[in-house]
Amino acid sequence: MRTTTARAYPNIALVKYWGKADEELILPAAGSLSLTLDHFETTTTVVPAPDASSDVLELDGTLADAGQTDRISTFLDHVRALAGRDDRVLVRSRNSVPTGAGLASSASGFAALATAAAAAFDLDLNARDLSRLARRGSGSACRSIPDGIAVWHAGDDASSFAETVPAPDMRMIIVTVNRARKAVSSREAMRLTAATSPFYSGWVSSTEDYLEQMVAACAAGDFTRIGEITESHALRMHGLIQSTVPPIRFLNPTSHAIFDAVAEARENGIEAYSTADAGPNVAVIVRPHDAEALAEKLSGFGDVRVVGPGPGAHLLTADDEVPPADAATTAAGEGSRA
Ligand code: DP6
Predict the structure, then answer these.
(1) Among 194, 206, 235, 253, which one has the highest count of C-beta atoms within 10 angstroms of its own C-beta?
(2) pTM to 2 decimals?
(3) Which ligand 1 atom is nearest residue 138's CA?
């Protein structure tokens, strides 16, 4: 084993993943498609700790709570099973976005962890198998393994992975209206939706239709169709989520105002379309030459950042290792290095 560091970027879905066919394998009920960003990265270092009795997680310089540590430990059990080893590890992860606020930090987090852990445990995985592995941490993480626009195939354990598809160049404007951790996790909300919404089966079947149309629109370079599907599918997802019992609402009045402002910009000649994940922040896709002007118009709603298609998850060198949280953790971490 060896100490490894990897970096991955979040992705924002243009055709959303909302609902599982298999909870344990994290197989989606329908395929989805996303844009991996070139900002808001997660960098993760995995340090072998062969003498430790449990995994340790340091998140943004602080020891993570039991819930977060259990979730990565369950994921690492899967890596250990693949490697045929039992070693515990110290994971140091640094996010440039707040965790759990709906900007998909779990996607970048598990994509970076999968990439670093696979290398730390000497697993020789191709891109497809690395995407399948990341999927076991968080479904959307499998789409942060490939570059740029990626489609995640529904299917079985072997066939459910993400890969890059051809698409026109575009920019995304991220409008951060709230950085707080969300009250209900995507995982919980997804479960509740499948269990209680009368619209769930229609959502799953219409998502497959939209995905097919979206992949065709991407291949044809048809930005207008890409945008129409993006905005319509996002609103369908939020309608679906609001139809759960008890209802869940992720969008707030500012989110709705941004959707309206983008619709107004469209009427005034800037073609752009909105989407939002499980939180109030809004992501707007736009053609590259219109991005700065629209970002300026949206800057009154919150922090605005223009981002573009980013790279897939990749290993970094020892120079980029995430530093230990403090001196005490340094002693434990460094001392146990393989
Ligand atoms: C709204 O991938 O976080 O961002 O697989 O349970 O970890 P788990 O869920 P997660 O859900 C993401 C939901 C979404 C839509 C999307 O990214 O497609």
Answers:
(1) 194
(2) 0.93
(3) 7
